[in-house]
Structures are given as structure tokens and as C-alpha cells.
What we know:
Mean pLDDT: 95
Distance between the termini: 37 Å
CATH architecture of the largest domain: 3-Layer(aba) Sandwich
Helix content: 25-40%
CATH class of the largest domain: Alpha Beta
Order of helices and strands: EHEHHHEEEHEEEHEEHHEEEHEEHEHEEH
Number of strands: 18
Bound molecules: aspartic acid, magnesium ion
Number of domains: 2
Shape: globular
Number of helices: 12
Structural class: alpha/beta
Amino acid sequence: MPVLVMKFGGTSVATLDRIRRAAKRVGVEVAKGYEVIVIVSAMSGKTNELVGWVNETSPMYDAREYDAIVSSGENVTAGLMALTLQEMDVPARSWQGWQVPVKTTSAHSAARIEEIPTDNINAKFAQGMKVAIVAGFQGVSPEGRITTLGRGGSDTTAVAFAAAFEAERCDIYTDVDGVYTTDPRVEAKARKLDKISFEEMLELASLGAKVLQTRSVELAMRYKVKLRVLSSFEEQTDDAGTLVCDEEEIMESNVVAGVAFSREEAKMTLVSVADRPGIAALIFTALSDAGVNVDMIVQNISEEGRTDMTWSCPVDQVARAKQAMDDAKSSEVINYSDLLADTDVAKVSVVGIGMRSHTGVAAKMFQVLSNEGINIQVITTSEIKISVLINRKYMELAVQALHDAFELDKAA
Ligand code: ASP
Ligand code: MG
């Protein structure tokens, strides 16, 4: 029998009523002849509450206990979903990660799935069970401890199960009805996409579109898992939501698929560092050792053997970056005259696989920003993405102007 994976996010299982509504959807798929693997998140807000309890109890917590605690929200929803289905006379049972077992690395709070054996669940399907409900977000380490996959990790659980069980599709039920050309709260003309390629989705997810955990898109791309993002609050039709798929399955697409943005950025500049081989390695090793996620990097023109080095990072990592640079200076690893931090910047990006074959996207983007009088501070590009750092107060304006200029409100 074909297998379908259905994942329900926190808002879709937030109350007993919503669990019942989700269970009905599962029932519909079972009636179509699928064996269904349901992956559940914790009730919305639950994981935050658990994380809060951990921090309050022990600020320098043992990460193994953090995982034991924050994974528990999913156990509750998995059991409740199983009971709800049983009440509907659908043969179902729940599985915690370790029971499957979902084997992961031992990187607590950011573990990676290494293997999902299928025999336990398949044996139950063979005995007539129709639905396996698996607690998302969690697994078990080689040491036998409970692990979690990072916030938003139940998306990754879902895709990993779809790959392991060779599911026909992986449906991600959430509180939005699909993937949009940009955030509709910033641009009212944002349009829901029927299809988007894995690569574009990967860029959008890593640029801060919160619909899917980045890692889940990476996995889906690697194993060619067809992913569908759809709302659990709207009537289900066969073409509901957005299909994330191989680019070959997309006949027509705009050059630019979407505009992404991230508000919480900072720009830091190390003033007057020596311009010689090895300096960049020293700076960025120190930052990475301090856990700073550097995104964009620019090295300015050098004068008399000294240069300025600029990078961007999340705004809440500025203090850590400062500390790392202070330490590197006092231990004479690097020498510089000043460290500037601008915490008032935002990143705006345009993404589209069409950029591979169309020239002029960057020029057009810069022209649009210039027409609005927006100054570009840093630029980075990849094959299918152009990102700029601008003053935060112009972020909405930039997103709207770009959305308009690239005519994203119209389908290709
Ligand atoms: N409950 C976890 C979180 O809130 C995992 C998930 O929902 O994907 O991050
Ligand atoms: Mg999520």
C-alpha cells in the first residue's frame, strides 16, 4: 500500500478540537487506501514553555536534560492523536522517537537524524494498523539518550520518515495555506505559489521564511521527497497548498520566485586590521569559535597595509562577537583600531532559479532600491539569490518595491 506522511504543526494540534479536525484529515487519507505516518509537533506554545522552565531552573543546563524535557510536548500530542483516531475506529498507535528508533547523532538540541529503521512500524502496518503517529522533533543518541533536532525540527522528522518509507508525498499541515512570494503581512499583494523548487525553498527557508525548517528542505532535496505545505484550517482540495518539488516539474516560473527579508541583522566593521595572508582566517575562526553566525563579508580597499573588514550577523550575537574580538586583541592574535556595530540594518533578498539563465536581475534590483532612495550597504550573491543589507527602516519599502518591480503578484 502507498505510504503518505502527514505532519501537523503546533497550531494544528493546539487543542483537542484541532486534534480531532486533524485526525479527520488523516481518516480521509486512510479511506483513500494509504498507510499513513503522522508526525506531530507539540501543542503551540508548549515547547517555548518547556524551554523557559529549563532556563529558569538551570541557566547553564545539561543539554541532555534539556532534550529530555523539551521533547516531551510531542509525546502528549502523539498519544492524543492516537486516542482520537482510535475513537474514530481507525487502527492507530503512537511512537516516541526512541521506540522507532529514530537514530540521531549526540549533538543535543541540534541532533541530526542518521537512520530510521522501518521494520517496527512496517510490522504493525502488516498486522492491520493504518496509522503510525510519531512524536516529531526527537530521537535517540548512540548513548541511548533522548535528543532533539533543533527548533522547528518536526518538519525534518516528517521528511526523514517520508524518505525512509518511500512515501508518495509528505504533507506539512500548518497555519498558512502555502508558500508566498513574500510575507503577506509586509506586502498585501503577495501571491501563493502553486509550486516552488527545492533550491528556491532552501534559500527562502535559510533567509528566514519560517514555513519549513531549513534542514527539512535539504533532506527533501537530497531524497527527492515531494513536499506539500498546506493549511489545516481550510478545506482540503487536491491542489491545495504549495508543492515543493524538483525544478523539472515546474513548467513556467518567474525569474524571481520570491522576496525574503530578515529584520534582526547587524553589521560590524573591524577598523584598520593588517592586510596580510591569514588575517581573515584568524578573525573568522575567532568569531566561529564564539558561536557567531557570520553571513555577509566584505573586505574594503587596503591603504598602507591596513584594511577594514565588515561582516553581518544576527543582532543578538553582536555582544558575543565583540567579546571574541576584544579577546583576540588582548591576546595579540589580531590588532585593530576600532570595532563598529550597526544594529539598525535588515537584509532583503530576491531568490529565483531563473537567475541562472537571465542576466540583469542584480542591476534591476539595485535600480529599484536606488529609485526609492535606499542606500545599499553590503551585497552578496549566489547562483540563485541576491541579498543586500540596508537600513532597517526601509525594509518594508524595499520588499514592496521589489515585489512590484519583479511583478511577483502575477503568475508566469
Ligand atoms: N515543538 C518543536 C518546536 O516548537 C518542534 C516543532 O514544532 O517543529 O520547535
Ligand atoms: Mg514549524
